[in-house]
Write a structure and sequence with these properties.
Number of helices: 8
Distance between the termini: 68 Å
Largest sheet: 2 strands, antiparallel
Number of strands: 4
Helix content: 55-70%
Amino acid sequence: MEFLPILAQLPYPEIDPVFFQIGPFQIVSFQIGPLAFRWYGLMYLLGLGGAYWLIKIRAAQKRIPLDPQQLSDLIVFAAFGVFIGGRLGYVLFYNLPFYLDNPLKIFAVWEGGMSFHGGLLGVCVALVVFCQRRGFSMAAIGDLAAGAAPIGLGFGRMGNFINGELYGRATDVEWCMVFPQGGPECRHPSQLYEAGLEGLALFILLLIMNQRTTPPGTIFWTFISGYGVARFFVEFFREPDSHLGFIFQWVTMGQLLCIPMIALGLIMILRGYQRSHSSS
């Protein structure tokens, strides 16, 4: 009995990055537009909207007095933290020599270049500032924000997939794809791996933990270490940045930055439980 050969690859669904466009408009002698609305921007909006909704529900459940205006401020603080921290993190961690030679390029965000690890540091700073100004517990707000963060991560990675960026390494697995910007090689769809692990799997883990009684800060630190583990694993399939390659042997910059996240997260979780046990 003969069997049909297994497909060597999955077709990459070439989705137009622009899902809606209007214009151009002619106003007097000036032409404006066209105005393009991109899937990637929509993914960010969905992530922020989902985070707003979930934080609102959980704040009410935990009786944290976070009114609508304060919640909006929290989302705005976090968004600025992600944007500013993500850009500075990319500059410092991934391409510092280039930006030292071309400092004005630091502001050319439309050319791409954002770092999750920098964005995470930016959000942490933003949360500290928010809690100090509004008089909230850092542990309580950190737990709320961390529990909702995988929503944004999942949508963000889907945006990367639609854009055909941050693709994986060349492979011969049956579900590999040829990305428009990745050359002729068939590659791991590593953006989908990240969406599944950093988004869905991490969200479910934190959802389960949220239903249990845990020391303050546990969900935040679980997110930190959990993301570190997920990203460290996916880096084995993700194509390293072309200008960096491997830092040494098989280790990438992404993995190097995840190691302290995993260690610090686990240490802080253990410390939280030890303090909770000693005070009970």
